[in-house]
Input
Amino acid sequence: MLSPASQTSKGTIGIDFGTTNSSIACADRSGEVRLAKFPYLGGLTDAYRSLLYLQQAKERGVNTLKSWTGPEAIEQYLSADTKGRLIQSLKSFLSSRNLHSTEIFGRRHTLEDLIARILRDLREKAEHQFGIKIRSAVAGRPVHFVGAENAEDDIYAESRLRSAFEAAGYESVEFEMEPIAAAHYYESTLDHDELILIGDFGGGTSDFSLVHVGPGVRRRDTASGNIVANAGVGIAGDAFDAKIVRHLVSPALGAGSELRSLGKILPVPNWVYIRLERWHHLSLLKARDVLQMLKGVHAQALEPEKIGALIHFIKEDLGFHLHRAVQKVKSDLSNAPLATFQFSDGFVDLAAAVERASFEEWISEELEKIAGCVDSLLASSGVLPKDVDMVFLTGGSSFVPAVRSIFETRFGKKRIRGGNEFTSVARGLALKAMDLR
Output
């Protein structure tokens, strides 16, 4: 149950801490749900970017570490002449038992502490808007965390996320699976009962749930019995982005090229480009030993200009700019069969025409795994596609035509629904919090 701190007449709180974006919602007894909004580039957004920007500054002769999160972090990063550290997609590391902390400007910071900084700022900004002290919430979690290989890994990841919430000032946190939260939101729009399939596509995971929803189901008040089955796979938007980087960016930065060492022709180390594909790992390349290694590669490279561009890319920490370019071409390909990928910072200039068919071929393995997860969910639960009344898709990658085709093929276009794709989980979590009062 939620603690008394959250049981005010002004509502209950749901928090969707996502790999790429986060959102926070407040529900009242009437069922109305409000989303917190945040200033960004002269406007307002309800998507709070799940990132942290740290910059070293000297005040009165003493080095201090300043930090910003969310939209403010982006604005500070874009305006800084000398770039600090932009840290992104922290949620993706929660299941890793090897990553406990990282060094930033000579100081060690735990993963939980870095996530807590984002959660604390999100809480404080929402408190100001909602007019309540937020000490409790229902928070979302994926069916399986990125990198989790078994139930123990998921438990470990959730415990780390709980510790981060506690460090951010939350006294009580209840976790709900993200697709179930989306089901709560969808249920609030119904005047009849349905068996639905929820597909929640985040940055790091794709999660699916079969759930009985509707007013009659709610009256029976058997929440655990309403969930037929859950399934998830650690593949989603970030994996699609990685394939765009692999085919359009990495070759221009030296992937697949060669160097001459001791009279032998050798390939340029490929692990650097694997990191590059996961753009949120790019800041990990900005280390003295990595840059020193690349300096040596540059001196021996058969195509030194490409390695020079790679070094520039890392030194200037251009991962965020790359992410924006990748997101734009991915969005354009969702709306048209042909799009142009463009990235330029004055030193590295990339442009390429991309066909939707080529993109779909690049991500074919990921699409097969997502489809396999859906089929496995249906088979294990004994539910036939014809038994599913509606399919509700949420999350950014639900707009990718090849992803939607997985569901249209099995259930038909008429049974596919969407709406508030980027905030439905937060809305559902706030409604769940109201149920727990």
